[in-house]
């Protein structure tokens, strides 16, 4: 918080630094999705520009969908909860406890993923990814209650230090006074009827915590708007497509291929206009000929008219060669853009359920083609998102409080981008290696019950009541042993009964 400086003046001061990035973002949006970053002064009644080519819009939507699929894979946790090295060393001395801990952590992971699905995070994150691809910047707000909000570059300003650490954010929103509470509307001054009022949201860093408050355009703070959070659990994520030293904002992916998009836009427009001109049909009649233009204009199909066919000709543009050159150039540019936006990527099948292998290949393709972007988003988007969701669920008593510094979430990237699915692969490979040592090795050195519990946790299965405990197994074995003993006694008694009857009969006969 800057003493003596209103949010409105702070916003105007930082807006001058943002202007260059905003102009570039609007130019990129004009050739892809104009509604993402609309032109300056745009309102709901204004018309957006329409590009002459559609590959820009297709590329942005396709790449955003693929990124969303790899960042938030369906039915699979994209993170895992890990223990600190000290706690893991202690659990190594207690073999039975490690499997139980892993099962408990897997249950927490499933609860967080259910929160992701139920809160509808995919739709706003898809919109955020489109902002990142086009403008390179986006602000995601995760309030304590309600849906997720996404702010474009034209609605907020940021300030960062030389290392790129976020210092403060100022958001500007225009709302109708009729939608505000009465106590807030009473604070508005110098307002004309029918006009909206500007509300500024200030989010800044103070010591080891984030602070937030809201302010009207006249500099009056809104009562009850204050908030405070730890540094690693803040509700606002100021995302950048890439990190540039000593710059407050990032640059989008579209900007890297803006030259091709501009060239393709010009060629597409020229080809379209030339095609329209070439498709126009105009007949020429020789002035000194015997054929009358009026007869031709009034003639119906199948009519007979007097005249000479040589007197009539068709006007032609004769620009086929020039249009072919433009079409070939446009086709080459489209191929380059298709490769840049991975439009011809066929890794993922068009199906409701996609295997983990396909998702891993998709993550690898994104990682290789985008130069480490997936790893960057895992640390700037996925990890803060998990921490914020866990903190919000703990406040709502829907998740147990975890000890600080003992259990922490971690995002696994690269070939292991599917969280605990990588643990399952490692377990299966370990079993294959141990089994190859010879018969009897698994039975001698492996705890089968611990292996079953860890495998279920890696698959994300709720193991409660599914796998028998050692006490249940011991009771069942004792019951089976007692049943066998009773059966043996019954069989002995049954086999001895005829002999006993014969002995009694013999003894009776001797007495007689």
* Strand order, largest beta sheet: 4-5-6-7-8
Cα distance, first to last residue?
A: 119 Å
Number of DSSP helices? 16
Shape summary: extended
Question: Helical percent range?
Answer: 40-55%
| Assembly state of the chains shown | single chain
Poorly predicted ranges (pLDDT <50, ≥5 residues)? Answer: 414-420
Mean pLDDT: 81
Structural class: alpha+beta
How many DSSP-defined strands?
Answer: 12
Main sheet attributes: strand count, strand direction, barrel closure = 5 strands, antiparallel
> What is the CA-atom radius of gyration, in angstroms?
37 Å
Strand and helix order: HHEHHHEEEEHEEEEHHEHEHHHEHHHH
Proportion of residues in extended strands: 5-15%
Give a concise summary.
It is built from 16 helices and 12 strands. It has 512 residues and is of the alpha+beta class.
Q: Which keywords apply here?
A:
single chain, 512 residues, alpha+beta, five-stranded antiparallel sheet, three-stranded antiparallel sheet, 16 helices, 12 strands, 13% strand
């Amino acid at each position: 918080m800057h003493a003596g400086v209103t949010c409105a003046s702070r916003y105007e001061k930082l807006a001058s630094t943002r202007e260059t990035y905003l102009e570039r973002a609007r130019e990129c949006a004009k050739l892809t999705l104009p509604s993402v970053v609309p032109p300056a002064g745009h309102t709901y009644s204004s018309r957006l520009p329409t590009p002459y080519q559609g590959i820009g819009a297709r590329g942005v939507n396709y790449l955003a969908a693929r990124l969303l699929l790899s960042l938030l894979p369906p039915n699979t946790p994209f993170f895992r909860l890990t223990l600190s090295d000290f706690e893991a060393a202690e659990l190594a001395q207690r073999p039975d406890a490690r499997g139980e801990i892993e099962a408990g952590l897997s249950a927490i992971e499933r609860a967080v993923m259910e929160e992701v699905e139920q809160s509808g995070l995919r739709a706003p994150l898809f919109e955020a990814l489109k902002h990142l691809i086009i403008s390179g910047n986006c602000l995601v707000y995760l309030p304590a209650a309600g849906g997720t909000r996404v702010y474009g570059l034209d609605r907020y300003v940021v300030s960062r230090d030389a290392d790129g650490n976020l210092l403060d954010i100022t958001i500007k929103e225009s709302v109708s006074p009729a939608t505000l509470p009465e106590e807030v509307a009473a604070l508005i001054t110098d307002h004309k009827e029918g006009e909206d009022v500007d509300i500024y949201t200030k989010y800044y860093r103070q010591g080891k915590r984030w602070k937030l408050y809201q302010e009207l355009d006249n500099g009056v703070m809104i009562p009850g708007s204050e908030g405070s959070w730890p540094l690693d659990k803040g509700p606002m994520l100021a995302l950048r497509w890439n990190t540039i030293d000593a710059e407050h904002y990032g640059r989008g992916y579209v900007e890297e291929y803006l030259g091709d998009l501009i060239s393709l836009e010009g060629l597409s427009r020229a080809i379209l206009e030339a095609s329209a001109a070439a498709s126009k049909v105009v007949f020429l009649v020789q002035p000194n000929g015997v054929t009358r233009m009026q007869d031709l204009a009034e003639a119906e199909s199948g009519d007979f008219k007097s005249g000479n066919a040589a007197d009539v000709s068709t006007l032609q543009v004769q620009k086929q060669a020039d249009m072919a050159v433009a079409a070939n150039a446009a086709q080459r540019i489209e191929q380059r853009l298709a490769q840049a936006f991975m439009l011809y990527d066929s890794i993922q099948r068009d199906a409701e359920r996609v295997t983990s292998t396909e998702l891993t290949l998709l993550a690898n393709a994104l990682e290789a083609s985008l130069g480490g972007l997936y790893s960057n988003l895992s640390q700037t988007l996925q990890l803060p998102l998990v921490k914020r969701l866990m903190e919000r669920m703990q406040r709502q008593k829907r998740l147990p409080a975890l000890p600080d510094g003992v259990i922490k979430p971690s995002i696994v990237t690269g070939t292991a981008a599917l969280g605990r699915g990588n643990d399952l692969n490692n377990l299966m490979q370990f079993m294959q290696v141990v089994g190859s040592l010879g018969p009897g090795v698994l039975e001698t050195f492996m705890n089968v019950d611990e292996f079953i519990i860890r495998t279920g946790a890696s698959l994300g299965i709720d193991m409660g009541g599914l796998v028998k405990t050692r006490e249940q197994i011991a009771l069942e074995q004792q019951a089976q042993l007692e049943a066998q003993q009773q059966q043996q006694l019954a069989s002995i008694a049954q086999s001895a009964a005829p002999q006993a009857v014969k002995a009694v009969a013999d003894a009776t006969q001797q007495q007689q």
